[in-house]
Amino acid sequence: MNVKANNHPVLFALMLSAFSALGPFTVDMYLSSLPQMMDYFSTNASMIQMSLTASLLGLGIGQLVAGPLSDVYGRRRPLLIFMVLYLLISMGCAFSPNIGIFIILRFIQGFVASAGLVISRAIVRDRYSGVEMVKFIALLTMISNIAPLISPTAGSAVSTFTSWSGVFIFLGFLGIFLTGMTVWGIKESLPADRRVPGNFMEVLRNYGSLLRDRGFMGYALVNGILFSGVFAYVAGTPFIYQNMYGISPQLFSVLFALNGLGIILGSQFVKRLAGRMDERRIFQIGLQLAFITTAAILIVVLSHGPFFLLFISIFLFAASIGIIGPVSFTLAMESQGHIAGSAAAILGTLQFALGAVTAPLVGIAGENSALPFGVTIFMTSILAVISYLILVKRPALASQ
C-alpha cells in the first residue's frame, strides 16, 4: 500500500474495505430479486438458495487458493488477476440461460471474489499487530459493513429499473473499478524476502500447522460458526420477511441495511474498548450476547411472535458479530505473521463454508416456515460456545 494511504488509517481502511466489501456485494446485492428469479428460471426456493450456497462455497474455497498465492507471490499480483476474472464472470451471471449454469457461475464468481477478502486481511497483518491491529480491524469492519447496508438497497434500486440481470451487470462494473484500484492504488506490502517457498508441500505444511494450533482454530471456529448464522439470516429473511410478514422488497432492503448498523455498532464498541479492556474479555462479551440473542430469535419463531421482536433480536445478534469479528481475527492472527495469507484464508473459508451449510437449511420446510431458521441460528451459538470452551478456555485454564 502506498505510504500516503498507510499514514492515514481511515484512507487506508477505505481502500482495503473496497476489496473486503466484494464478498457482501456478491452475496447480498441480489437478495431482493430472489422471488423474481424463482419465477424467471421456473424453479423453487431451494434451487434459488442453492445459487447463494454456491457463491458462499466459492468464497470459502477460493480463499484457500488466494491466501497461499499471496504468501508466495505477494499481495498485488494475485489480487489483480482475480479482479479481472471477477468482472468477466459477473457479466456471465447476468446472461445465464438457465438455473444450472447460473449456479455454476455463482460458484466461480464467489471463488474469484474471495481474493478481495483474504488478501485485504493479509495486508492488514503485514502492517499491524497487537492492540493496533485490533483497532484497525475494528475500523475496517465498521467501514466494510457499509456494504451490507447499501448492497441490498442498491440491488433493489437496480432491479427497479432493469431485471435481476442488471444487478450482475452492476457487479461487473464494480469489478472494473476494483481492477483499476489494484493497478493504481495498491502497492506491494509483502517484500520478497518475507514470502514463503512456492511449492505445494510447503502450503500443506503451513495449513497443517495452523490446523494443529488449538488457540488459532478455537477463535477461527467461533468466528466461522457464528458467521454461518449470519448467512442463515441472509438466506432466510428474504422469504420470512416478505412471504410471512408481508414486507415489501424495498422495505426489506431498508431493514436489512439497519441490521448492518448493528455490526457497525459492535465494531465501534470494540474500537473504543481496545487497549482499555483485555481483548479476550471483549470476545467473551460478544459470545455471550450472541447466545442470548439467538435464543431470543428461536423463542420468537416458536411463539410466532410479532415482527418487531424478531427484528430487534436479529439486530442485537448482528451487534454481537461486530464485536466478535475484529477481536477473534486479532487473537487468531497474533502469531501468524509469516503465513498471514494462509491464516486469513482459513478464517474466511470457515465463515463461508459453514455458511454454505446453514444457508440451505433455512429453506428445508419451504418459504413459508421460519422454524428451520430459528433452530439453525440458535445452534450456531451453541456450537460456538462449545468450540470456545474446548479449544480456548480449557487449555488456558490448564496452563495456569
UniProtKB/TrEMBL annotation:
Keywords: Cell membrane, Membrane, Transmembrane, Transmembrane helix, Transport. It is found in: Cell membrane. InterPro entries: Efflux_drug-R_Bcr/CmlA, MFS, MFS_dom, MFS_trans_sf. GO terms for molecular function: xenobiotic transmembrane transporter activity. Its main location: membrane. One of its GO terms (cellular component) is plasma membrane. GO terms for biological process: xenobiotic detoxification by transmembrane export across the plasma membrane. It is a multi-pass membrane protein. Coiled coil: none annotated. The chain crosses the membrane at residues 9-27, 47-67, 79-97, 103-124, 136-158, 164-186, 216-241, 247-270, 282-302, 308-332, 344-365, 371-391. Gene3D superfamilies: Multidrug resistance protein D (1.20.1720.10). Residues 9-399 form the Major facilitator superfamily (MFS) profile domain. The keyword Transport applies. NCBIfam families: efflux_Bcr_CflA. Belongs to the major facilitator superfamily. Bcr/CmlA family. This is Bcr/CflA family efflux transporter. It comes from Paenibacillus thalictri.
